[in-house]
Amino acid sequence: MLIFAMLLVMALTACTTPGVPASCDKDQWPGTQGLNIDGLTSQSDAQQQATLDAVNHAGARWVRVDVNWDYTEPAPGTWVYDAFDRVIPKITSRGMKVLLVMDYGVPRWANGVSDPFVPPTDPNAYGDFAAHVAARYAPYGVIYYEIWNEPNIDIYFHYPDPAKYVQLLQAAYTKIKAAVPNSIVLSGGFAPAATFGPDIAPSDFLDAMYQKGAKAYFDAVADHPYTMPVLASSQVPWGGFNDLVWNTNPYSSPGSHSMRTVMDHYGDGAKKVWATEDGAVVGPLPCSPQCGYFTEHDQAANVANMLATFSGFDWAGPMFIAKWQDATNPFETWGNHLGLLRLDGSQRPSYTEFVNHAFWHAFGQKPPASC
Q1: What is the average per-residue pLDDT within 278-286?
Q2: End-to-end CA distance of the chain
Q3: DSSP 40
Q4: Helix or strand (DSSP H, E) at 47
Q5: SS3 of residue 338 by DSSP
Q6: Does the pLDDT at position 250 exceed 60?
Q7: d(CA 355, CA 366)
Q8: 334 DSSP assignment
């Protein structure tokens, strides 16, 4: 009788969380959340195994990987894939998907100068690079490609020019599709910026891309809708989500519209927007001192809100949180302090929010305490 009672209690308990795996095995959760992982390609094999096990266990289903052109093709037709050959099979073997960024690091032979952020003189050279990478990793199920990173700001594209960018996009799209017909090609993720000086606001840049004939040369739009220090849902008159969706007083030039409005205007409303970077810093904010300081709990609230807000739109694709762990990149400032993990590998409260969202997206509820 006692045994029967115990079995009955166990059965009733199991029924209280329908659809939840008894083991709470995060490795098997479906979902659209991904991560940017600093330094992954430079880790040892053992470190990569440990990192990717942890990332997979946290519920991430995507990993965004930068493929630098000058590393991969240091001379015309000379290919170096060691770093990516080591890491990409490790990602896909765990059931996670890869988004490859066909990145800058433009080799001198391609642009004639020693500045890696000056676009190449011949867009076809960039297209050949992108297609060669695509063909190499398609056998691993890698079919997702982002063309450049933040082409709307001067720091990564000297100097922002929608017409020049569209030429690169057209060349890359055409050649990638020829190499991997089932590929999905994204435009380069836009940085939140004002149309001021050399920089161009995302909605203005996107509008100019359409005017230059880009519509047929991307399958989805990528964006980086950072909103620090406010929440993504707050509809404040500035920030990444405002320029993407709300348009209450956008960063863009007078009379322009949100990115989604621009897409609708050009008959592209059915295409998805992927948030290939978004996150929140711990410490002094990028706009300090006027914006103040983010605590770890501020970061957690911001990460939870951006995941929930973005996933609530029917046009939303995956969202990639920046970043998995704090870093010590000498070329970064606040970007070193975006991690869900601290520099020592311990979990911040934002890690829990990421896991909670992954579980909710998979099963429609927060994970039970036992997970």
Answers
A1: 89
A2: 30
A3: G
A4: helix 45-57
A5: coil
A6: no
A7: 9
A8: G
Return the pLDDT at 256.
66
Q: Three-state SS for 115? A: coil
Cα 151 to Cα 100: distance, rounded to the nearest angstrom: 16
CATH class of segment(s) 29-363: alpha beta
CA atoms within 13 Å, Cβ hemisphere of 106: 25
| Residue 34: φ, ψ to 5° | -135, -175
pLDDT tens-digit series, residues 93-147: 999 999 999 999 999 999 999 999 999 999 999 999 999 999 999 999 999 999 9
Q: Which of 68, 140, 82, 142 is nearest to 110 (CA)?
A: 68
- Asked if 146 and 318 touch (Cβ cutoff 8 Å), the reply is no
pTM of the model: 0.90
What is the rounded distance in angstroms from the CA atom of residue 302 to the CA atom of residue 299?
A: 5
Phi, psi of 320 (to 5 degrees): -110, 115
Euclidean distance between CA atoms 348 and 299, whole angstroms: 9
Residue 17: predicted pLDDT: 41
The mean pLDDT of the chain is 88
Cβ contacts of 234-239, under 8 Å, gap ≥ 24 = 239/192
Q: Which of 150, 144, 138, 181 is nearest to 34 (CA)?
A: 144
pLDDT over 90 (residue 302): yes
Task: Between 190 and 9, name the one with better pLDDT.
Answer: 190
Length of the chain: 371
Segments making up each domain of the chain, as ranges: 29-363
Residue 15 has pLDDT above 50, yes or no: no
Q: Which two tokens stand for residue 210?
A: 């359409």
49-69 pLDDT per residue, tens: 999 999 999 999 999 999 999
| Residue bearing tokens 């810093």 | 281
- Hey, CA dihedral for 108, 109, 113, 115, is it positive or negative? negative
Amino acid identity for residue 243 in this structure: D
* DSSP state for residue 21 in the 8-state scheme: -
Phi, psi of 277 (to 5 degrees): -150, 135
In the chain, the amino acid numbered 146 is E
Distance CA 164, CA 24 (A): 48
